[in-house]
Amino acid sequence: MKQTDYVILGLLSESPLTGYQIKRIIDIRFRFFWSESYGQIYPRLKSLQIQGLIEETDSTIKRNRSQKTYQIKPEGLAALLHWLEQPVERESVRIELLLKMYFSHLITADTMVSHLRGFQEAHEKDLQLIQMAERELKAIIGKDPNHPYVLRVIDFGEKINEAYINWSRETIKFLESRREK
Q1: Is the pLDDT of residue 181 over 70?
Q2: 3-85: which CATH topology?
Q3: Which of 36, 125, 147, 156 is in the most buried spot, having the most CB atoms within 10 Å?
Q4: What are the residue boundaries of the structural domains of the chain, listed by start?
Q5: Residue 144 pLDDT more than 80?
Q6: Per-residue pLDDT averaged across 150-158, rounded?
Q7: Is the pLDDT of residue 62 over 80?
Q8: What is the largest CA-CA distance in the chain?
């Protein structure tokens, strides 16, 4: 199975959802550490259904399109639980800005500073969203046993974004000092 399958199974373990709702949740809740496209989600929903891990609970027609709602089956929950027990795979990191920084001696410092400012601003916005989610979750912390664990994920997101922001500031200063020489 693919990691996308486990994201879907995990979200369906919380409640029945459509493919569109799964994509929205991933984009909102997981944006700082995970992404999935519709092109990944819909084929995996079909595959999970064929494997007998999820089932369709409702189908409605909206804007000439069928919207199917899926729910996890006991077999899907068992597969999710099995995956949760497995060792974590090594993460892969692809940050284009760092690749550009590596080769930045070939361009002007102003160009690289512009890239860095955009990177910093994007992570400042992400940090604000994460902090807003943290405040909202803390207001309802006792309503779901998963909330303390979600707060740990949010804490990671805050620390990563703060590190990106701090590194951006330091690197902008570095580039500006190099430009002055």
Answers
A1: no
A2: Arc Repressor Mutant, subunit A (1.10.10)
A3: 36
A4: 3-85, 96-180
A5: yes
A6: 94
A7: no
A8: 66
Average pLDDT over residues 162-174: 97
145: left (phi over 0), alpha (psi -120 to 50) or beta: alpha
Q: What is the 3-state secondary structure (H, E, C) of the chain?
A: CCHHHHHHHHHHHHCCEEHHHHHHHHHHHCCCCCCCCHHHHHHHHHHHHHCCCEEEEEEEEECCEEEEEEEECHHHHHHHHHHHHCCCCCCCCCCHHHHHHHCHHHCCHHHHHHHHHHHHHHHHHHHHHHHHHHHHHHHCHHHCCCHHHHHHHHHHHHHHHHHHHHHHHHHHHHHHHHHHC
Q: Per-residue confidence at 180, pLDDT binned at 50, 70, 90?
A: low
CB 55 within 8 A of CB 16: no
